[in-house]
Amino acid sequence: MKRAIFGFGGHAREILQIVPNIHKVYVDDNFNTKHTSPISEFDPEEYEMMICVADSQDREKIVNKLPSETKYFSFIHPTALLFSDVKVGEGSYIGPYCILTENITIGSHAILNRMNQIGHDCEVKDFLSMMPGSIISGNCSVGNKVYLGSNSSIKEKIFVCDNVTIGLNSGVVKNISESGVYGGVPVAKLK
Fold it and tell me: Considering the entire predicted model, what is its pTM?
């Protein structure tokens, strides 16, 4: 099958520079340009897809709108270091200079941008978004649709529930069991 991506924002344009053999770029029909194709023309029999939209919530909505028979490809950059027993779900992107140590499970449609790290014995659910330089330390459990801003970090042995946004340069040192937006060092709920 040929490869296609959905999105033409900043992250998608970076993907076009990094991932080889992208044959088509799809966007919502009302945002189509001369460089893209309308998603209404997407054929899941011809193309496998990667959703290249950084926002976890938006990425899930796009996946839910695509035909159920859509196949998704993943990409791991050649400079990324994946040690033993690392599982990466479908439609995921592991970018340049990422480090994933050992016994790690990452769900579907994850984005690990540049220079992200995930430590040993972590389980991360679907639609993870890690912006450049963010870190998840060992023995962590991270829920669905979690977004880590640039240079944020999660201390070891931490639980983060679903639908959490962690602001840039923030430090998570206690479990987060309530969805919302968090920021600061240590993080506090902002909204």
Answer: 0.94
